[in-house]
Write a structure and sequence with these properties.
Nucleotidyltransferase, domain 5, 337 residues, 42% helix, 18% strand, alpha/beta, binds zinc ion, binds 5'-O-[(R)-(carboxyoxy)(hydroxy)phosphoryl]adenosine, five-stranded mixed beta sheet
């Protein structure tokens, strides 16, 4: 079975091919030019997807040593994401499926992330806790099987990645914030400033907007301008902020481990690339004697390998999508029980 996956929900165009369960290609083209604008410009993103999608598909086929007519299943992200960006990949995938007369499966981007641990040699074991941390979402989920996902908690305001991006901007470090904050933090003291960690009683929910405001107030109170922050202070602020985000994520995951019997923990999404967060979750796993699966870097951020993998599992469960399937920009309430 040869599966083609397409991802175009935000600022990465990605095409992947899985052949007989083996990943043959996972090509990712990142739109770096958005850093000039301090964030993703949706219309520019759509246009860039449009320019690169055909060359990427050709490259992926060549790398996998396959012809288009040897593809058996076509999968594409349908949402959540930027509507114009989603339309490019989704419409292309549907058109391709129609042209080559092959089945098509529309994939929920978050479900792609949730199962991205299965792209690793060591895979998660059901039931497992999935901590999804990306630019747009923060979710703690109980994953019982490929068709049973229960939402335990989510953010009530900003997503973890969004907090990294906003704090990076206010510190003058630029976009995307996560990698910049991680880098600057390497020279800082994570315990220097006691930034607040929201405690939402009796839920597994998260909140990051108070933390973001606390960093803003700290900077406003101590410096006349963000440009006047010394390098050492900047490193301490970034490291203390990063530490507060990690503590909030780990604390809720620990709470869930005390309440649910699981076999493993999987950290997924763009923020899963964060080294100190990965280490903290691995430590937590040791404490509870649970296997911790953290995808390698190419599977943390947006990629089509996770879309092809998820699409294949949906197909195996007996589902196909119609060719009039519409993209969905946001996660609907009924997603995840
Ligand atoms: O999953 P993803 O690629 O796109 C979405 O679906 O949102 O996640 C992107 C997010 C951005 O907010 C980015 O700042 C964050 O992941 N990120 C990181 C790191 N690398 C990327 N956050 C913290 N530390 C990192 N090393
Ligand atoms: Zn994502």
């Amino acid at each position: 079975m040869n599966v083609l996956g397409i991802e175009s929900s935000c600022d990465e165009t990605s095409v992947a091919i899985i052949s007989d369960e083996k990943l043959k290609a996972n090509l990712i083209s990142s739109q770096d030019f958005h850093s000039n604008y301090g964030g993703v410009v949706p219309e520019l993103s759509s246009r860039a997807h449009l320019q690169i999608i055909i060359p990427l598909i050709k490259d992926a086929l060549q790398k996998s040593d396959l012809k288009l007519n040897e593809i058996d299943l076509i999968c594409s992200t349908a949402g959540p994401g930027l509507i114009g960006a989603l339309l490019v990949g989704l419409t292309f995938a549907k058109g391709l499926a129609y042209a080559v007369k092959k089945p098509f499966v529309a994939v929920n981007h978050i479900e792609g992330h949730i199962f991205s641990g299965f792209l690793m040699e060591e895979k998660p074991e059901f039931p497992y806790l999935a901590l999804v941390v990306s630019g747009g979402h923060t979710l703690l989920l109980l994953v019982e099987s490929f068709s049973k996902i229960y939402k335990l908690g989510t953010t009530v305001d900003d997503a973890a990645g969004e907090a990294f991006d906003k704090v990076s901007k206010l510190l003058g470090l630029g976009y995307p914030g996560g990698p910049k904050i991680q880098k600057v933090s390497e020279n800082g003291d994570p315990n220097k400033i006691n930034f607040p960690i929201a405690e939402l009683k009796d839920t597994f929910n998260f909140s990051f907007s108070g933390l973001k405001t606390a960093v803003l107030r700290y900077v406003q109170h101590n410096y006349s301008d963000q440009k006047n922050i010394h390098d050492k202070d900047l490193a301490d602020i970034a490291a203390s902020f990063q530490n507060a985000v990690i503590k909030a994520l780990v604390k809720n995951t620990e709470k869930a481990l005390n309440n649910f019997e699981v076999k493993s923990i999987s950290l997924v999404g763009g923020v899963a690339a964060n080294k100190p967060l990965r280490n903290s979750l691995i430590e937590l796993g040791k404490k509870f004697n649970k296997k911790v699966i953290v995808p390698r870097m190419e599977f943390c951020g947006d990629n089509a390998a996770m879309i092809a993998f998820r699409g294949l599992r949906i197909y195996e469960l007996g589902y196909e999508s119609r060719l009039n399937f519409s993209p969905f920009p946001s996660l609907a309430k009924e997603h995840f029980a």
